[in-house]
Design brief:
The structure is a single chain. By secondary structure, this protein is an all-beta fold. Strands 3, 4, 5, 26 and 27 form a 5-stranded antiparallel sheet that branches. The chain has a 4-stranded antiparallel sheet with strand order 6-7-8-9, with no helix packed on it.
Length: 303
């Protein structure tokens, strides 16, 4: 990848910077119980790699985790960690780099952000085995992050060009068209459990960052709350019970809908440094009798 950058709002933005963490990170997974105060089991390093490991995403049945990793020193591929065996296996093996895997609503494939040979950054799809790569949105680029709203609609973080801010766009895969619904957004896009709305981080100039949500049905946008630590945190995930978790350093903060402010849900500082990504695994019928899991991307305390 090149580091061709655009200057926007005083920040240098590039595809490389948006997809890669600022420091060496690993992927850790733990079971958890509780709601507003999470009792997190000991963290397990599932990536076990000195290179790039990022963007974990659980399979819908909770049996495995997909993530992006660099293990040959040249480009990033998608890997899979299986909880039953503890094994890491390579899923894609291409000459391009793939990031941010998400299993599609049909459960038969996963989508990725792919950095192509000419550094074009677009949304692609693979079968679960890492086969049959195909382009999802031909004319939408450069895409940085995405979330699946339902079978034919996606939420996209699209990088701004020529000094313009990054935008939140809703894409229709049947027509290949998109609609811009907000700008100056962060990388964390999620579909809110039980609501079908898209949550994201809004970064207004000169003001506190906000957690917002867009309703694809009503086309309305509303503010949910401010982020917990004044323009430092943009990594979020929803718990199955509807509470929002965000990282703040090595702490996990939780926000309860309808309440003001954030509270510390868990302190991981004894095990890891700064947490830079979050993913929440399924619960309920998908994992009968099992503890739900959380995955964090974090700076290791020591190698």
């Amino acid at each position: 990848m090149t580091r061709a950058s655009v200057v926007a709002a005083g920040l240098v933005l590039s595809s490389a910077l948006l997809q890669q963490p600022a420091a060496d990170t690993d992927i850790y997974v733990a079971g958890y119980v509780g709601t507003d105060r999470l009792n997190v089991a000991p963290l397990v390093n599932v990536s076990r790699n000195d290179g790039y490991d990022n963007q974990p995403s659980f399979l819908p049945d909770g049996t495995a985790l997909l993530f992006s990793s660099m293990r040959d020193g040249t480009q990033r591929d998608i890997y899979r960690y299986d909880f039953a065996t503890g094994q890491v296996t390579q899923v894609t093996s291409t000459s391009e780099s793939e990031y941010s895997p998400l299993v599609t609503p049909d459960g038969r494939s996963f989508s990725v952000i792919r950095v192509e040979a000419d550094n074009t950054q677009r949304l692609w799809r693979f079968d679960l085995e890492g086969t049959r790569p195909r382009l999802v949105l031909e004319n939408v680029k450069p895409v940085g992050y995405h979330a699946c709203i339902e079978a034919t609609h996606l939420a996209l973080f699209v990088l701004g060009a020529n000094g313009q801010p990054n935008t939140l766009q809703i894409a229709d895969t049947r027509t290949g068209t998109t609609e811009v619904v907000d700008s100056r957004i962060g990388r964390s896009l999620h579909v809110r459990p039980g609501a079908g709305t898209v949550s994201y981080i809004s970064k207004p100039q000169g003001a506190h960052w906000l957690v917002k949500e867009f309703d694809p049905k009503t086309r309305e946008t509303r503010t949910l709350t401010e982020t917990p630590d004044s323009n430092q945190t943009e990594d979020a995930a929803w718990l199955p019970n509807g509470m929002l978790v965000m990282s703040s350093g090595s702490k996990l903060m939780v926000w309860v809908p309808g309440q003001n402010g954030w509270r510390v849900a868990a302190d991981l500082s004894a095990s890891v440094g700064r947490v830079t990504r979050l993913a929440i695994g399924p619960s309920g019928p998908a994992l009968p009798g099992a503890m739900p899991r959380i995955a964090v991307v974090a700076e290791p305390r020591a190698r």
